[in-house]
Amino acid sequence: MAQSAKPASTVKTTQTAKSASKTTSTEPVQFIFDKSNYRLLIISVAVVAFGFVLMAGTTDIYSTTKIVIAPIVVLAGFALGFFAILKKPATN
């Protein structure tokens, strides 16, 4: 009832494992984001955190700072974060 399976044939490649490891590239690694992108992203996180601190402010629930200014600051922080992500790095 049990069938005997034939061993799979070996796959022949054009390069061996030794020669494949020797072909490393000496080009510098290019990251997706530039230093300015990371700086803007950190600033945007700080702006969003500051907006939430403004929302937590005083005990007055209907304060203008809590209702109007803090949400605008938070949205500005998110907008700055989106800009930091979408900004293309400067080419040299």
Task: Summarize the structure in words.
By secondary structure, this protein is an all-alpha fold. The protein contains three helices and no strands. It has helices at about 15-20, 35-55, 65-85. Helix 2 runs antiparallel to helix 3 (about 65-85). The protein starts with 16 loop residues before the first helix and ends in a 6-residue tail after the last helix. The mean pLDDT is about 85.
SSE topology string:
HHH
Q: How far apart lie the N and C ends?
A: 69 Å
Shape: elongated
> How many β-strand runs?
0
Helix percent reads 55-70%
Largest sheet: none
**Approximately how much beta-strand content do the residues carry?**
under 5%
Mean residue pLDDT: 83
Uncertain parts = none
Structure classification: mainly alpha
State the gist of this model.
This protein has three helices and no strands.
Which features does this protein show?
single chain, 3 helices, 92 residues, mainly alpha
